[in-house]
Amino acid sequence: MADQQHILGIAGSLRRKSYNLALLRAATELAPPGMSIEIYERLGEIPPYNEDVREVGRPEPVVRITEAVRAADGILIATPEYNYSMPGVLKNAIDWVSRPPQESPLRNKPAAIMSASTGISGGMRAQLHLRQSFVFTDTPAMLRPEVIVPKAAERFDEAGRLTDEPTRKFIASFLVDFSRWIRRFNMPLAVAFVAMTLSACGRTPAGPVTAPTPATSTTSKPAPPPPPPPTFVKTTSETRTTRVVDVREGMTKQQLFRTVSDWLSQKYSIDVSDPRAGFLMTPWQASYLRDGLPDLHYRTRVVIRFYGDTTWKQVSARAEANWQVGDEWDIGYDQQLLEDIVVELRTRIGKRN
């Protein structure tokens, strides 16, 4: 491989103003010396995978992306999360390029993954599913660091430029690590063989053999685990975790449910929605940012429930939270999240004085 590393960037979204496409554009600006990133822009032209079609002859868009992957030193994918997984257009492209498996350019092709979303999970579940597909295609995807960009609308300007400076610095560092990752898989065969041989044989430079230095009595203590977020309140009391709001008069059940459902789906995402029971619940999400990244040891979810017979008179809100300590989870609620939800409910459907 030449000193210059050519990277193929693929955005998993077809949307013109996609945050993941914008994330790739930011990567082209932040690439280290010796690395160039070319964004593939014809993902939407690839037809649905059909084995009958492949046996007759691969369509031109499939040939194009296959050869683009083959020519690249590595692939950089930025993907949103759709329904807890990667978008269908991205999975479809992988299905085409991976066939037949023994000839696929995805085999031993170094890869790195990024994701961005307007929610607080940052697309992490899409990354997990993409990595699972790469296990079968034998595509070595870099494990760490991970680029997960939550609340993307706050990190990009109207023109789609990444303006959040900590995120820009992290991506620049991420790309330096990706460059090293690529070199691990593209080193000349002779160099790799010598390195493995020396490692296997335990070769050391010639010289006198010395006894190992005795261990001292002092040992370094492991770093203490980080504390939970300051908004976390540990409790098993439902009374403390729940707030009740009186509902505005004159609004029907349908109006109330739609108002809250629309707001909740825009702000977070919805896992359970039952309009007849007046029940809404978000999935567990990594909602706390530590050093600009989601802390996976902390998770929250929102639970909304309406009360009443012929008409709903009240609505309750809960902001459940779990904090991981070793193999266990402390149970409680997020005080700030609960206050924010109550403010929204009072503003949108609360009883007017």
Structural account:
By secondary structure, the chain is an alpha/beta fold. The chain folds into two domains: 5-188, Rossmann fold, CATH 3.40.50; 232-349, Alpha-D-Glucose-1,6-Bisphosphate, Chain A, domain 4, CATH 3.30.530.50. The chain is built from ten helices and 14 strands. It has helices spanning 19-30, 51-56, 60-71, 88-97, 124-137, 165-186, 189-201, 238-241, 253-267, 335-349; strands at residues 5-11, 35-40, 74-79, 111-116, 147-149, 232-234, 242-246, 272-274, 279-281, 289-290, 293-294, 298-308, 312-325, 328-334. Strands 6, 7, 8, 9, 12, 13 and 14 form a seven-stranded antiparallel sheet that branches. Strand 12 (298-308) and strand 13 form a beta hairpin. The chain is globular. Mean pLDDT is 86; it is low at 189-200 and 202-218.
Distinctive features:
353 residues; alpha/beta; Rossmann fold; Alpha-D-Glucose-1,6-Bisphosphate, Chain A, domain 4; 7-stranded antiparallel beta sheet; 5-stranded parallel beta sheet; globular
Question: In brief, what are we looking at here?
Answer:
The chain is α/β, with parallel strands linked by helices and 353 residues long.
The helix count comes to: 10
- In the CATH scheme, the class of the largest domain would be Alpha Beta
Q: Mean pLDDT, nearest integer?
A: 86
Structural class by secondary-structure content: alpha/beta
What number of structural domains do the residues give? Answer: 2
Percent strand equals: 15-25%
Number of strands: 14
What is the H level of CATH, i.e. the homologous superfamily of the largest domain?
A: Flavodoxin domain
Determine the CATH topology of the largest domain: Rossmann fold
Q: What is the general shape?
A: globular
Helix content: 25-40%
- Give, in order, the helices and strands: EHEHHEHEHEHHEHEHEEEEEEEH
Residue stretches low in confidence (pLDDT < 50, at least 5 long) are: 189-200, 202-218
Radius of gyration: 26 Å
CATH architecture of the largest domain: 3-Layer(aba) Sandwich
